[in-house]
Each structure stands twice: as structure tokens, then as C-alpha cells.
Specification:
With 360 residues, the chain is an alpha+beta fold. It is built from eight helices and eleven strands. It has two domains: 177 residues, RRM (RNA recognition motif) domain (Alpha-Beta Plaits, 2-Layer Sandwich); 92 residues, no CATH class. The chain has a four-stranded antiparallel sheet. The protein has a three-stranded antiparallel sheet with strand order 9-10-11, with no helix packed on it. A two-stranded antiparallel sheet has the order 1-2. A hairpin with a 5-residue loop joins strand 9 and strand 10. The protein is elongated. The termini are far apart. Belongs to the RRM CWC2 family.
Length: 360
């Protein structure tokens, strides 16, 4: 929490080189034809002495005029007057930059503007840097470190350019506005700031991918999501069944299957919850289409090819063991089946008789 009010950086608003641009409403960007001959900006942001509290509240963006060193509202400004932090970046999300401006799906051809939300870019390209000086890297680091924590600075000797990589994307966005039309060394022309293109180095790409994955994992953990592998929540009396081949069914009366696949034997886990084999009226006889009988307990949901010792079959309404309504078609008495066939044949014959009469 800042105790001092924000300092008025400029007594009155004034135009400078940052306003002398042609804004394209269709592309959402500005172009400057005389950028190479642009004069150095008259104002510059000094966060150490310019930062202070304003009317801004939670979720409000940073003041872009404060970053440029020319905000004339001071404590009456509706935006923050300070360098951005991780909370600002998370609050605004990837769709907007730290100043509340909409980002685009693709970068501009000249890599200028607010940037793209398709890639997390934290590196600035700094052109027109006098790399002949021995202290070039040190001076570049000192100039840009005012606006956020720097991860690396690389000066390319002979190419008059440097690459500054920040730890936060929000800091890179702030520095891009703060150092626009500023000179790195006294007497030098204004530097040219652009977003850096993607590093072609495979090692750098892997490092960036690892960083994004770590960042995503930290974000999920902050939300309370557990990323570690949790064990299965088995019951206390549960034992993993032993796998056996299908051919094991032949031992209980089923036809032997030569399939090499395996299935788990789950009979044990059903029996664990019930120490008894079932009381009277719980076991019902069923018959497979192949004519093989098996038994099922409707209470314990246990199925067996053989009637357990001491078990009692359920009594049907006819007083016979095993429900006749539960048997398959193959369990019907052959005599009963023969008795039922004429009914269908009579219908067929009667239908044929009527058709014959119509023909006559």
C-alpha cells in the first residue's frame, strides 16, 4: 500500500512525438512515417519518485500516461501510478495488456503495438543502441531495470541492437511505453522498441515451454487443484482380484474358451461383504441358452455355477424349487413345447384355408 500521493508529472497535458501518429481504426494500430527522424521525448517516467496512490481500485489498469511520464492528474487519476506486478497481469488476463488495451490474435508486421495474446512475449527488441561502447550491456540493463525485474540482457555487437527479457509480460509492456522515444546514451538518437520475434534456438523453446507448464501448474495449485497422483479409494476389506484366463470357466461346467485374454475373478469381492451363503428363499435357478443351469442370490447379488453348500432355493408359487418364470427357453419341457406348437400351426392352417376360399 502506497502512503504518498502520486506526483503530477506534468503541469498541463502536452503533445509530443508519441501523439504524432496516424491511427488506423480498422487495424487498431498507429503508424509513424517519420519515426527514424523522431525527436527524443520531453518526458520520462521515474517510478521511484513518480509512483503513488490514486483513485484506482482493484482490477483497474496502469496509467499509460504515467508510464510515458506525462500524466497531469497525479492523485486524481483513475488509473494506477506504479510499476505492474504479477497480480495486475493475472487480473487483466491475456486478452488485454497492462494498460487495459485489447491485444490481438496476431502480431503486427513490424512487431509493434500492444502485441498478441497468442504468444507470451516478455522480450523487447531495442534498436539504435551504440554497441561500440564497452559498458553498453550495463547501461541497457540499468535503463530498463527501473520498470521491472529483468531476466536477461543480450547486446549484439556490430548490429546496434539489444534484447531485454523481463520476468513478467506486464513489465515488458510497461517498459515498451516508458522507453519509447528515449535515448540509451546521451546524444544518441531515440531507440527503436519492438516486440522480439520467437527465439529459433531449440533450447530456448524448450525452456520457454517448461516455464509455461510450471506457470500453469502453479496457477492450478493456487486454485486448489491437486496435481499429484492420488491412490484409488478402495474399501478397507477390498482385495484386488486375481486375473485368470477364460478357460477357467470350464472347471464349473462352462464350455472351455481358448481366448488368451484374461478377466478378473470378482466372486471373491462379492462374498467378502456377506459371510453367509444366503438364507432361505434367496437363491434362484437360471438356465443359459445352452441348457446349463446356474444360481443367483438376489440379496447378495452373488452368482455361481453350483449351488453353495447349505443354500436353499427360493420357493415359487407352484411350490417347486427354482422359479419357472426365471428359466430360459431351453428349460421348457419338450412335451409342453410340443403342446404349444399346434396353436401356431392352427393359425397358419386357418389363414391358408381362408385364402383358398377367396381363390375359389
Amino acid at each position: 500500500m502506497m502512503k504518498n500521493p502520486a506526483r503530477v508529472q506534468r503541469a498541463r497535458p502536452a503533445d509530443d512525438n508519441r501523439d504524432k501518429a496516424v491511427h488506423n481504426l480498422w487495424k487498431g494500430c498507429s503508424t509513424r512515417k517519420d519515426e527514424k527522424q523522431a525527436k527524443i521525448a520531453e518526458t520520462r517516467c521515474h517510478p521511484a519518485k513518480d509512483s503513488g496512490y490514486t483513485r484506482a481500485g482493484k482490477g483497474d489498469p496502469i496509467c499509460v500516461f504515467f508510464a510515458q511520464g506525462r500524466c497531469d492528474k497525479g492523485p486524481n487519476c483513475d488509473y494506477w501510478h506504479r510499476i505492474p506486478n504479477k497480480e495486475d497481469e493475472d487480473m487483466l488476463g491475456a486478452a488485454m495488456d497492462v494498460f487495459g488495451r485489447d491485444r490481438f490474435a496476431s502480431s503486427r508486421e513490424d512487431m509493434g503495438g500492444v502485441g498478441s495474446f497468442s504468444r507470451e512475449n516478455r522480450t523487447l527488441y531495442v534498436g539504435r543502441v551504440n554497441t561500440n561502447r564497452e559498458d553498453a550491456e550495463k547501461i541497457v540493463h540499468a535503463q530498463f531495470s527501473e520498470f521491472g525485474q529483468i531476466e536477461s540482457v543480450r547486446v549484439l555487437a556490430g548490429r546496434n541492437c539489444a534484447f531485454v527479457k523481463y520476468r513478467l509480460r506486464a513489465a515488458a509492456e510497461f517498459a515498451k511505453e516508458a522507453m519509447a522515444f528515449q535515448s540509451i546514451f546521451p546524444g544518441d538518437p531515440a531507440c527503436n522498441l519492438r516486440w522480439a520475434t520467437e527465439d529459433p534456438n531449440p533450447g530456448a523453446r524448450r525452456a520457454e515451454m517448461d516455464r509455461v507448464q510450471r506457470q500453469a501448474a502453479e496457477h492450478l495449485m493456487d486454485k486448489g487443484v491437486c496435481l499429484s497422483d492420488a491412490p484409488y479409494n478402495y474399501p478397507s476389506n477390498y482385495n484386488l482380484p486375481i486375473k485368470r484366463p477364460y478357460g477357467a470357466l470350464s472347471s464349473v461346467g462352462a464350455s472351455k474358451n481358448t481366448c488368451i485374454d484374461e478377466y478378473p475373478d470378482t466372486n471373491q469381492q462379492f462374498a467378502q461383504g456377506n459371510s453367509s451363503v444366503g438364507g432361505e428363499g434367496e437363491w434362484i435357478t437360471y438356465i443359459t441358452p445352452d441348457g446349463i443351469p446356474y444360481y443367483h442370490n438376489s440379496v447378495t447379488q452373488q452368482t455361481s455355477w453350483q449351488l453353495p453348500e447349505g443354500a436353499v432355493l427360493a420357493q415359487t408359487s407352484e411350490g417347486q424349487d427354482g422359479g419357472s418364470g426365471h428359466v430360459g427357453a431351453s428349460s421348457l419341457n419338450p412335451d409342453d413345447k410340443a403342446e404349444k406348437e399346434p396353436a401356431g400351426l392352427d393359425l397358419l392352417f386357418s389363414y391358408g384355408d381362408e385364402s383358398d376360399k377367396e381363390e375359389e
